[in-house]
Design brief:
Blueprint lengths: L14 H4 L3 H12 L9 E5 L5 H10 L3 E6 L2 H4 L10 E5 L11 E7 L8 H11 E12 L5 H10 L2 H6 L12 H10 L2 E15 L3 H8 L4 H4 L4 H15 L9 E14 L4
Length: about 270
């Protein structure tokens, strides 16, 4: 749910901003969890656990023996320790560096791995964490063609912001659905499930789309600029975005996500 895969710095992630749309952001988590086959005594890792509240729900739903939530945002993770105990713990760590102490029965990651490049290498790493028969369950936002995302890239390319960003424009590393199927097959997963799902997020107005992306996508730009430059970036983003969205109340924000699930074959 929060960015992992980068050296920790002052986190642009705000639990309060993220949780403004708590119900809408939680639904894909539970839909991903529904794919997981419950087994006795599972050892689970939730990579990109955010505040840990949903990790707690998963730990209870699976009746897991041990669950560890891992996140790189100390701001988000600070709230997680209230949920620890009874086999559930949390760690500050980077996704490409964190290692389990023993093979896992489930590697679970909801709305996090789209922050990490090179998904073939990343998924191979996940596969190595799993015991035979272990499960991989991943959900990634895939809404990059919506104006909420394309306008951010457009603003980032404008001269005053391009200079502040040193030319950086966010590129999402997500693969196509068929590529995830072939990747899981190569990594030794049987009968993988890969699907796209579009959620109709009913927001109060089109202005709420700005508030939504301030809690996620725009953090990648916020951390690369000083506060005053980012505020100008945000004003320009809002000015370009809102005219491209229908002025309806409620506003339906279609949001596409990719779900990936598989079971590691014996001997893989």
């Amino acid at each position: 749910m929060t960015e992992i895969g980068r050296t920790p710095t002052a986190s642009p992630w705000s639990p309060e901003q993220y949780d403004r749309f708590k119900a809408e952001r939680s639904k894909p988590f539970y839909d991903l969890l529904a794919l997981v086959q419950r087994r006795p005594g599972m050892r689970v890792a939730d990579l990109g656990c955010g505040t840990g509240e949903l990790t707690r729900d998963m730990h209870r739903a699976l009746a897991a023996a041990e669950t560890v939530g891992v996140d790189s945002s100390e701001t988000m993770l600070a709230k997680s320790f209230a949920f620890a105990g009874n086999g559930l713990r949390f760690e500050h760590g980077l996704l490409e560096a964190w290692e389990p102490g023993a093979p896992l029965d489930l590697v679970f990651s909801n709305a996090a791995v789209h922050w990490v490049p090179d998904h073939p290498a990343l998924f191979a790493r996940f596969a190595r964490m799993l015991a035979p028969g272990g499960q991989l369950a991943i959900q990634v936002p895939s809404n990059d063609e919506h104006p909420s995302h394309t306008v951010a890239a457009e603003v980032a390319r404008e001269p005053p912001f391009a200079k502040a960003l040193h030319g950086y424009v966010r590129v999402v590393p997500n693969l196509r659905l068929a590529e995830y199927v072939l990747l899981l097959e190569r990594l030794g997963f049987r009968d993988p499930v890969v699907r796209a799902q579009v959620y109709a997020q009913r927001l109060g107005s089109r202005e709420d789309v700005v508030e939504w992306v301030k809690g996620t996508l725009l953090t990648d730009y916020a951390k690369r600029m000083d506060a005053s430059t980012y505020e100008r970036f945000l004003q320009r983003y809002r000015a370009l975005l809102l005219p491209r969205l229908s002025d309806t109340r409620p506003f339906v924000f279609p949001f596409e996500r990719t779900f990936v699930w598989g079971v590691k074959r014996e001997g893989a």
